TrEMBL record:
Residues 3-174 form the Tr-type G domain. The keyword Protein biosynthesis applies. It comes from Bacillus suaedaesalsae. This is Selenocysteine-specific elongation factor. The gene is selB. InterPro entries: Beta-barrel_SelB, EF-Tu_GTPase, EFTu-like_2, Elong_fac_SelB-wing-hlx_typ-2, P-loop_NTPase, SelB_WHD4, Small_GTP-bd, T_Tr_GTP-bd_dom. The keyword Protein biosynthesis applies. Pfam families: Beta-barrel_SelB, GTP_EFTU, GTP_EFTU_D2, WHD_2nd_SelB, WHD_3rd_SelB.
Amino acid sequence: MDKHYFTVGMAGHIDHGKTSLTKALTNVDTDRLKEEKERQISIELGFAPLELGDNISASVIDVPGHERFIRQMIAGVAGIDLVILVVAADEGVMPQTKEHLDILSFLGIKKGIVAVSKIDKVDEEFVDLVEEEIKEQLQGTVFADSPIILVDSLKSIGIDQLRAKIKEELEQLEMRNASGAFRLPIDQVFTVKGQGTVVRGTVYEGTVIEGQTLMILPSREETKARQLQVHHKPAEKAVAGQRVAINLSNITKDQIERGDVLVDKEHFVVTNTIDISLSFVQSLKHPIKQRTPIKLHLGTSEVMGKIIFFDRNEATGASGEVLCQLRLDEDVVTKRGDRFILRRPTPTETIGGGWVLDPHGQKYRFGEETIQMLHNKKEGTPTQRVIDILKEKKYLPKKELLQLTSLKEEQLEELKQDSDDLIEMMQGFTLQSEKDSLLQKANEQLKGYQEKYPLRFGMSKAELVAVLSHQVPKEWVTTVIDEGLQNNLLQKQSQFVATMDYEPSYPPSWKKRIESLMSSIQQDGLNVKTWEEYGNASGIPKDVLEELKHYLKTTNKLYFLDEKNAITRENLEMAIKKLRAATENTFDLKVAKDSLDLSRKYLIPLMELFDALEITRREEQNRVWVRDTIE
């Protein structure tokens, strides 16, 4: 049977016996700092292993209970699966206990056990009253129906019962995802002499292996997992739910800090603007106004920022769920679904919490339209999230799509199998409907261009791609155009792209004049006037003449003897036929002049054109026939 790993949090008011209970369960004293020993309170997070049989292993986190150490408390519980709420029998539920309950609720922790500690401090007949009082205080919280265990940590009363209940509750939980991208929010950073920088944290998801290349976010510093330890024991790997210490290579202690995140892939978003679903504590003392400064606790990070409402100017504890946005002073690392806590920096209080709808928040207008958009984000299925983001972005590399949708790779693969619209392309994803739409736009763009420039062979591919790449990836547009050409949905000649049914033609408004111009050149045979003279005589505008010249030259309807003079294909073929009939395999200029009755003004350029077309080949003063037709 595969072993499952979980994290159990020990929470509660200061001096209610969390550390003693942790020691009774695990035989580990989590008060490790000298200051903690002297003051007999937990300042930093304490960790201890708890083995619960062959298939379950847990890390117990003893989180500080004092109000001044609330950041450490939040950093500890943010990654836990099960909470043990410790309530001293002689004091009952205290204000700090209630704040912890709010925090646990906002972080989405559903499983809990209430451990009534210090039962030796009250009479036996008083214990029932204590239980009733605790149940009453816990009504309406995530702990309302939690089992209650009476314990005396020093005398080991109820410890075995509590351990058994922990195992029973954990067996009902799904293990965290160990197959996805690795993510470790860092809550401790220190240096070990001779080893270098070490970080600790609870693996939120994925797996880390000794020797693996990792990245520190948000700084994007690269490093390697030189060595791993799980509860002070060397390990080759650590998986989701486990507490791990990682010795990092090529990183100094001042390059990393609590709140940073260690990852193995860039599936996670670094951002300072997040769309959120937010709920407030019922006992909120002061209304939260538009742009109120807040302190965000997300994972192990603590960042200042402000709250942005789109449907109100203030909120209270009775406001219910509010869809809004946080704009932060520093970057954080997050993805959709991550839980967070908000606290007011002054006066200090927990004001609420919730979850991340979209880590890629943008600036939106105040009003119902934005609220509806945020509601769609909240309610959207994984399929709808993928479709919505690809309708906006058209194409995304796989990594970016995973970031924006907060999906796991296996989820994306399942969606691809189940959807006729979602397709893989260029090591990323797009929608077939968006490809079809782009090809339609390409055809519309080309038709407009072809109507405007009927003498051209179409639009240059580079220009077409540039026009269609407005706010969408150029590489995607290029690939879709290429596929359209391969599938005969578009046609291409040289660097020009056109619709499949298109052929260049004379502009209707100038057709008669162009035909007259061509007739004049044809009638003049080989003794032609300049192109400019024909143009001036035709009355055709200069810009149309330039287009026409390029068209006639490209289609070989005209052959230019030089920059000024051109003859028709028919007259060129007639000259070749006439000269071939009058000469042997070799001839010179005199023979050509007599045969064609041409002055040197036209003869020399014509012979050079013959050479260029490989009709003839010049050998000293003579020319040798190579062939007698134009290819």
